[in-house]
Amino acid sequence: MIDLFASQITYLKGVGPKKAELLHKELGIATYDDLLNYYPFRYVDKSQVLSIRDVVSDQAYVQIRGKVMSVDSSGEKRMRYVIVTVQDSTGTIDLVFFKGLRWVISHFTPGKSFYVFGKPSVFRNKFNFVHPEIEGDTGEVRVVSGPRLEGIYSSTEKLKNAGLGSRGIGFLVRELLNQGVNQIEETIPEYLTTRHLLMNRRDALVNIHFPEDATKIPLSTQRLKFEELLFIQLDMLLQKKNLQRKIPGQVFSQVGPLFLEFYEKYLPFELTGAQKRVIREIRMDLKSGTQMNRLLQGDVGSGKTLVALMIFLLAIDNGFQTCLMAPTEILANQHFNSITSFLKDMDIEVALLTGNTKKAQRNHIHKRLLEGSLNLLIGTHAVIEEVVQFKNLGFVVIDEQHRFGVEQRARLWKKSEVLPHVLVMTATPIPRTLAMTLYGNLDVSIIDELPPGRKPIKTVHFFESKRLRVLGFMREQIKLGRQIYVVYPLINESENLDLKNLMDGFENIQHDFPLPEFQVSVVHGRMKADEKEFEMKRFVEGKTDIMVSTTVIEVGVDVPNASVMIIENAERFGLSQLHQLRGRVGRGADQSYCILMSGNKLSAEGRKRLEIMVKSNDGFEIAEADLKLRGPGDMQGTQQSGVLDLRIANLAQDGDLIMLTRKVAETILEKDGQLADPENKLLRDQIVKIRKQKRNWSRIS
Ligand code: ADP
Ligand code: MG
């Protein structure tokens, strides 16, 4: 049977090539199916007519009925706008038009009555309607034909000009349903719709566009969200299964002497419960015979590197070489120093390889890697250069994942015949539900517990008027021997202005903290890499007291003696970024502080962000709040993901439904791993269809 909904939208009555092109460009609607799945974002009750006197808020769409009193075209020759004043028995209100002025003037003759529908806005201190929808009033009592609840579709200026505002789109959907409603097919098997009390698909689609009554809206919404999320989870889990099946991995069968020696003799503290759990999760992967691809999330300082170290030992015990790749020279150095100090009394060969490694040393490393006498290589991108060959690489850790592309990861993998296990570590917490959806095809481990005894960082928010107090505090801390970060925002719109801000700040600080008593470093994006490196190093080595920088200060840089983080214009940073920056302090034994400086004028959202920072030290909690505040589109790592083209579900608000559909998908696939069972035929067909669509998209873009 021909699939009506696969038809190009241009063939729908009332569309045609011009409108089709617009619909595609503006809303991504190319087929009947796309239009069917373009849902209203809200509903209004058109049976309600408001008295003009009662138009008192710009919060909602309302309908009024009034008679035209006057039509005032301002700006004479070069007419810029037209104001139509309408009146009912309770008052008058203006309709404002900036476009299609000729039509407006010919249409609104004084004395005629109209229904006016729109969202009031404030102009010249009065409520009015800008470009409202208009319907002629025949003078008779209006017979409400069709549903009273009307869906409002979001549209664009260009579409509105082509007659495809909300109402125009509604007409098209009506036409589409008239033609095709009987061909709408179910995608979810009955055993699931029954169990989860879901409306059937046809009713859901009809009611989401044209609700029979108000109770149908949540029911149809729930059904369509469930469907959308269920197929994402099924698709992700199937991908994950296939990945696991295809790629064999080294088997680490034993917990050997090195691991045990370290654990019993040299580990200076007790592992946290979360660390133990994650090590167990990883061990299961390493025994399984398939290649591990695991994402390890944990807040800054939660002890991820230590987990990596324990797994290095496990791999070495099983006769394999290991590698740790960090995004920058400084981070690689830090890892090298802390790991070699942990391992100083053990018989393990560790080397550092970066762009700065001397030729002779480098050759020596290459040789020992090939021989197999080097157990652990720590480095930057330098470790994935062609010349670097291992004898038997078994386990790789990539730190701070977002800086490495997929391609770089693939290059690492090619370094041995059987692919090494890969653990990607990231300190950018992602809310659980988001991770499930974005990384549902990866395994994710989470360290959600900090080592005991950490002093929580004290966070405060100050307005500019407290500047002097802050300076005094800085002096006090430096006298105590501490170091301080001062961070300026970097906004892409005006790099020059940002740089000026930073340099002004730098000069002020040099003025307030004069040489030779105080030493100040500065780092920003316009500096050459080696200059940056030099300034960073001075700070890391304790030669400077204050580090003034943009956000280029490295993720993960560890200066335990730095105990104060001052963030200038903190209202301009996103929550995750603020939390990342704050994570630079609180690494030593001393009490640490984070001071958020802001101007007096704060947007409601900006204020909320700073409040959350002052209240919470927990990266996951902050990530959740961030997701709620900004929506998923702005979250790190989500931009390129097609998963976010959600039609109805909302990653920030539908957490419970995400968890539920994940469970449902898991249960289905546990019983029927390839959806081969006849009772799951609908699911399989739909997955095939979704994947075909995805392929088509990727071919286009
Ligand atoms: P991350 O890589 O997650 O930022 P690290 O592994 O670098 O965290 O650990 C941060 C600090 O905490 C290090 O100094 C580390 O030695 C220490 N640490 C790690 N695990 C524990 C633990 N279980 N108990 C006490 N301190 C720990
Ligand atoms: Mg770390």
Explain how this protein is built.
By secondary structure, the chain is α/β, with parallel strands linked by helices. Among the domains are: 42-152, Nucleic acid-binding proteins (OB fold (Dihydrolipoamide Acetyltransferase, E2P)), CATH 2.40.50.140; 257-447, Rossmann fold; 458-616, 3-Layer(aba) Sandwich (Rossmann fold). Helices cover 40% and strands 18% of the residues. It has 23 helices and 22 strands. A seven-stranded mixed sheet has the order 6-7-4-3-2-5-8. Helix 15 (432-438) packs across helix 22 and helix 20 runs antiparallel to helix 21 (619-630). The structure holds adenosine-5'-diphosphate and magnesium ion.
Give the N-to-C terminal Cα separation: 29 Å
Number of helices: 23
Radius of gyration: 31 Å
Strand order of the largest sheet: 6-7-4-3-2-5-8
CATH architecture of one domain: 3-Layer(aba) Sandwich
Question: Percent helix among the residues?
Answer: 40-55%
Structural class: alpha/beta
By CATH, the superfamily of one domain comes out as: P-loop containing nucleotide triphosphate hydrolases
CATH class term of one domain: Alpha Beta
Which ranges are low-confidence, i.e. pLDDT below 50, for 5 or more consecutive residues? 633-643
Relative strand content: 15-25%
User: On the 0-100 scale, what is the average pLDDT?
Assistant: 86
- How is the CATH topology of one domain named? Rossmann fold
Unique ligands? adenosine-5'-diphosphate, magnesium ion
- Characterize the biggest β-sheet: 7 strands, mixed
The outline comes out as globular
